[in-house]
Design goal:
Length: 209
């Protein structure tokens, strides 16, 4: 009885050991599938695949939301492929806002490194969780929930965020409603917004119909 158990244990141990892989650097030359990028051959992997320098540069906030997001997702940072993590930098000029949005594929952790940021999310029970964050404060946003960040001060604000996925996904609510060709009449029926206001927002964000 002991021998079969021991044999099974050794077999499972050998299989799990064989399945261990240190990393899976994204191979951008191979097609991306539903499970992500294929692994670059180990012989072609370099240290630069594990280094991303873009988060040290301020994003361009001269836009309608007065904010910028600099991602270090798998599409920009091949070394995070398969590791279940990614990063981004948020720059918010005075009056800047990251509108209501969701990340379908990841939870988010935000740390404020400069300025003041008003941040919040709404649960599936429509409970609002809202906080004014100062430098050094950290806030977590659970996966898939609507959330936002607003510059709450008179100077520029900076935050860094981490995600529990190399490709967290992003859907911005305003863009989903007003930056496409969904008929204005349907938007009005489903949101109870005034038609004139909807057309104005579509004009600002590039939507049609």
């Amino acid at each position: 009885m002991i021998f079969p158990i021991f044999f099974t244990f050794v077999l499972l141990l050998s299989i799990s050991h064989a399945a261990v892989q240190d990393f899976c650097v994204a191979d951008y030359k191979a097609p991306e599938g539903p499970a992500g990028y294929s692994c670059k051959k180990a012989a072609k992997v370099t240290v630069d695949d594990f280094v991303f320098s873009g988060l040290g540069v301020a994003g361009n906030t001269t836009n309608i939301i007065k904010a910028a997001v600099t991602p270090a997702f798998v599409a920009q940072f091949p070394g995070v492929n398969g590791l279940g993590i990614s990063l981004a930098r948020l720059d918010l000029a005075p009056g800047g806002v990251i509108p209501f949005h969701t990340h379908p594929g990841a939870s988010e952790v935000l740390i404020v490194t400069q300025g003041t940021i008003i941040a919040g999310f709404i649960s599936s029970a429509n409970t609002v969780y809202l906080k004014t964050l100062k430098q050094g404060d950290v806030m977590v946003f659970p996966q898939g929930l609507l959330h936002f960040q607003v510059n709450g001060g008179s100077t520029s604000a900076i935050a860094f965020v981490s995600f529990s996925s190399p490709s967290p996904g992003l859907q911005i609510l305003d863009f989903a409603l007003f930056q496409n060709d969904l008929p204005t009449s349907l938007v009005a029926m489903t949101t109870f917004l005034d038609v004139a206001q909807i057309k104005k927002l579509k004009g600002v964000l590039g939507g049609t119909n």
